[in-house]
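Deliverable D5.2: sample structural annotation.
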Amino acid sequence: MTHANLMNNYFDPNSVYIEEDFRRHFLMRRHVFQHLLCDVQQVNPYFRQKWDRVGHPSFSPHQKVTIALRMMAYGSPADSMDETYGMSESTCLDTLEEFCDTIVQLYKDEYICELNQEDLNRLIRKTEDHGFLGMIGLLDCMHWD
């Protein structure tokens, strides 16, 4: 039922929420979510639909990715997902861990790189323009020269 509600609200052709609502709720566009979903399913079998021994479907890929994104984007605690998505705290934590590991595996070469001096100068200017002096030295408890 929770999968059906999620699909009806956000992913079906005549979904309850329009694109602007989707972007506000998920902090990304629907096509970006769909691309991300496809990528994680191809790399990690955890995000593919499975069935239990009596033939009931497990949590859908849409549910798993939604839960991981909600926990990261909003800082939602794992135990709060049970009310909305029917997923236990331990399963939510497993899902989040699988998602993070998969995202790093998928995108690290493209998006995670060591900053060069030009990148660092651009970030320093940007943060100082917004009043965040010294912010770069605080990232991940690293100290930059």
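Annotation notes: The chain has a mean pLDDT of 86. The chain has seven helices and no strands.
The annotation will be released with the project's public dataset once the embargo ends.
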